[in-house]
Specification:
homotrimer; alpha/beta; Glucose Oxidase, domain 1; DUF2172 (chains A, B, C); aminopeptidase activity (chains A, B, C); protease (chains A, B, C); aminopeptidase (chains A, B, C)
């Protein structure tokens, strides 16, 4: 069982947004330097650290190279001993030890000496961001290369360059992790993120960070209506592997899910729907963002680019949506060394956590209610009307009257929140008060929810 | 049977809008001074006068104090003998005999002498409307108070004030009235208004006035497809009482209904939908207003505040909508002495009557028609084309062609009016012409209309 | 069988838009001078010329005067020998031999001498277009008259005018033509146009011209999924006659249809929906125009005015829509001598042909596809990803990924094109590539399409 008392990284109080953001940022700082990739020790160590510090029951799996899943095959495992480039003057021009983005992901081993002209096809930089190291990989085509700031590249003198890339690209395994936290129902909420990006923060350490925190928070709750499944896998291939192993179960049990990515900056909130576009997760996601960030960016599924590509593919069709901060591909620092732990902030992370927590709370607390009297109840004689009509709670009376006016046993609390245009979390406590006053009775919703309907 | 010949208040010609407005305004002038309230002689006399002058078959009921309905109990009956406030100089500062709004509704009896400071918690005025007497009640909490123009209140000198409130608040009864005018069908159209407001005109004497006129007009018709039910009850409690007594019948028989309130000024038209929002009454109401006042104000059910709160409550769910002039709560004079018979005009009242009459005519005349020939009929050989294509009736030919083009036996005349974007009352006469020319046959709609579907 | 090799009017290469436009314009030039009307030799010769030069299997029918169909009767046949007006100075003022619009259609024969004042009720001109000869007919009311430019009329001197109208209005027949080109399915696509307009070009020679070209193009195809039916009939009455003869067959077999009219100018594209508004033809028509002319004009069925009035009438209900250029009634030259072969251009005609061809290709090629692998396929290992990711084909990769992402066996290719917001013809070739790579399999759509559903 997760116990945040024993962790230096989990918050002691899940309602303290400040502490939560700082702890989550601290966790990302721990993991940031590791050289995550599609396979290899970086991803493996990342998962082991998450298990050690946050989720003791996290299950870590190794899938051997060469294993086939759907249309894909797990490639050789890639690890880096050292990689650097020495210039004509004998000085190191770029060094993997300085920043793991300097080396193209999955670079094959090589040692050679090349002229600058011969070297150029193996160099990558961004003229429009001259200080940034770009992030480049070549998973499925043998290649090697270095990434460097354009201003460094532009200043390279003519002459001979010595290339040293000591990598191992050989049969091994691909590593991923999962954890299923049981609830009262076998129906599951899926939280999916990925752990294949080297030293970048928004895309991607924020996603697995928030996912781990959400699971730890859920584990701290006295009860959960639904079961929760966390999957931390390499992007694309890892999702393919996981789906191939669990497809029937996931299709039968997944009520809703969230793809966790790009959750760390403070610039905006963004929403990317599921392929079908109107699943429960979609509707809840839009509700949450419309209230916490009314000007949030709405993207189309046509602008997808993360693991929803697999989770929502035809024949898989999981009802997965994405609530994020600045979307991958849509911010300047994306896939460069500038996507770091200054771009990603404690407040940014805490905001994303809260958005997802709100969405989960809707899933956990939504119910159908029916008013117990015909016509409007007389709130005054129950002390509800005067108690509530003070200056500070004027809106609350209106909310309560609206809640009663729509509690017809057909609409759920979430649907009522949508109709009366207030956040779910604003009326859920009122439903409890009215329940306590015997003015509402609960018509439980959970048994009627059908998966993937 | 109502006979307008015998009344000085009903019009002699229902198609004369000018006479109709003047007669209706005269009726309101008769009723205006009475001290209507939740109970008491003011409401009782109002109903008796309406029976005497307009609706001889109006049935008036008395419900004893203490009787319970749904969540409510009929309170003690309240009547006023006299009520005034004498200032330090021995002069009456405010006097109920001058304006019945001066006394807070349901003020308990009291005689005492107070300093100005002690008196202030019992005084009510509106700084933003310094000439207006506000309308205040305290039905369910024992209290007394005076309402007065702010400019009078602000000028009150220090000193002792003598309070004289001779009211009776003791077991009696609550009074309401109803009338069911039978038609060919047992399905009913409900007209609901309320009679609990003292001397105010738009909110509320215009509503019961228009309701009584509509019933008298309906009674004057040679035939009625539907039955019509008028309920004139105190707001909220009266609706609760009435619903509790008739709920099964109303739910089974009410095809559509209109809440009648705020129907007297000339500023605008307003629409407030039923809770479900798309009942037949809603669709007809929007149709009527969109043609007689295209810039009418549309409100949401979230802005409700009249008896639709009870009529549309969960489990009651009557398909009731509200067509009105300036909406309660949305005009400056609302609930003050400025809401008087200068704000409410003959033209304003006549316009509201006509809007409701149009809505009722749609209910009465709507039918499904089917064109009797395949392809367009040759109107020319029937004298319909040349007859109609004069300069003044150019649009009529187009309307007739459109009516034929959509009379497929599925759409009703009302639905066709919506599709071809003309008022129902513009094409209903054309349907009669085409029926006479054997180009349309009627597919009667009435038997297919299911209540509350 | 149609063979374009043998025709001077059909193109040798259906993909050469320039040649196609020029050939079509040449065909219209051949037909332009004929005096088409509701009946008579002009319409008859037009159909015989189309059979001779373009569609050797066109079937031409004659319906005797006096035959009744639905609400209509075929009138006497009308032919003109000569018609002119001689002024006071003995000179011909207007002469049918100069322009067949000079004579009111269906003018009865007459020889008389009239003063200018007596003549005026028989003269028609347009003050707002002083150079134009208007187009006037009086099919069902005995009348005679001349049409002339307003500037000529205004200059007519007082004096005696000699009227010579040698026409024959006597029992004969009404002529129309049809051709059914069989396909693999008995389901039919209906192409309907009309041949009753004298010397005008946009409204109407462009419609039958494009219709004939479409049929010749369809006949040149190696296979056709659907059967194609061309009807060339006089407007209104001809459609009535045709429908009366074929109604059961058309209702059972017509999957979609297009009314062909006003297809020759270059100003804009216009769309007029079917009565129901959302038939397959409507959806396809809007798709085509939204991609080839995003600013196309959308009209309502309330603005109808061509044979869709009969084809979409209640009880007939064929799913017919209209894609056109400048709509009848909506351009200055409409129904005047200015609607000529300078207004109608080769490019205008070729554009309309292509729009209809695109619509037909969607009908012919649409299918349901299902992706054959779960999750995204690995395009790279099939040479599809690198082959496509060149600078010029960047969008193609995205289209291909989107096509795979939505090929769930439920959406058709057309529906996917709508969802991913690209033209059908942009992704149809990609579906073929993916089919060839065994990444898609076809779930044939044709057997599931139900007519008039």
């Amino acid at each position: 069982m997760t116990s945040s008392d024993k962790s230096d990284y989990l918050p002691t109080d899940w309602n303290n947004q400040t502490e939560l953001g700082e702890r989550l940022h601290r966790l990302l700082t721990l993991l940031f330097p590791l050289n995550r990739s599609l396979t290899g020790d970086g991803a493996r160590q990342t998962l082991h650290l998450l298990r050690e510090h946050c989720l003791p029951d996290l299950r870590i799996h190794e899938i051997p190279s060469g294993t086939k899943f759907f249309d894909w095959t797990v490639p050789d495992e890639w690890n880096v001993q050292q990689a650097y480039l020495i210039g004509p003057d004998g000085q190191k021009v770029v060094d993997f030890d300085d920043h793991n983005l300097h080396l193209v992901g999955y670079s094959e081993p090589i040692r050679c000496t090349l002229s600058l002209a011969e070297l150029q096809p193996h160099l990558h930089s961004l003229p429009e961001l001259p200080d940034a190291i770009p992030y480049i990989t070549s998973y499925y085509q043998r290649y090697w290369g270095f990434c460097l700031p354009h201003k460094v590249r532009a200043a390279l003198p003519e002459g001979d360059y010595q290339v040293v890339i000591d990598t191992r690209l050989q049969p091994g395994s691909m590593t991923y992790a999962e954890w299923v936290l049981p609830g009262e129902s076998e129906q599951e909420i899926l939280l999916s993120s990925y752990i294949c990006h080297p030293s970048m923060a928004n895309n991607e350490l924020s996603g697995p960070g928030v996912g781990v925190f959400l699971m730890a928070w859920l584990a701290s709750l006295p009860r959960r209506r639904y079961s929760y499944r966390l999957m931390l896998v390499p992007e694309t291939l890892g999702a393919i592997v996981y789906l191939a192993q669990h497809l029937d179960h996931l299709k039968r049990h997944t009520l809703a899910g969230f793809n966790l990515t790009c959750m760390g900056d403070e610039r905006c909130y963004s929403f990317l729907p599921s392929r079908q576009g109107n699943s429960l997760a979609d509707r809840i996601g839009r509700h949450v963002l419309s209230h916490i960030a009314p000007d949030y960016q709405v993207y189309s599924y046509l602008e997808r680019g993360s693991n929803e590509r697999q989770l929502c593919a035809p024949g898989i069709d999981l009802p997965i949506t994405t609530l994020m901060r600045s979307k991958y591909g849509c911010y300047a620092e994306y896939h460069t060394s500038l996507d770091d732990l200054t771009l990603v902030t404690p407040a940014g992370l805490a905001g994303s956590f809260l958005a997802l927590r709100r969405a989960i709370e809707i899933l956990e607390l939504d119910d159908r209610y029916q008013v117990t009297v015909l016509g409007e109840p007389q709130l005054g004689k129950r002390g509800l009307y005067p108690n509530l009509s003070t200056r500070s709670s004027g809106g609350q009376t209106q909310d309560m009257m609206n809640l009663l006016a729509y509690s017809d046993g057909r609409l759920t609390l979430f649907e009522i929140a949508e109709v009366i245009k207030v956040p779910f979390w604003q009326i859920a406590p009122l439903a409890d008060i009215l329940l306590g006053a015997d003015l509402l009775r609960r018509v439980n919703v959970i048994s009627e929810n059908s998966v993937n309907s």
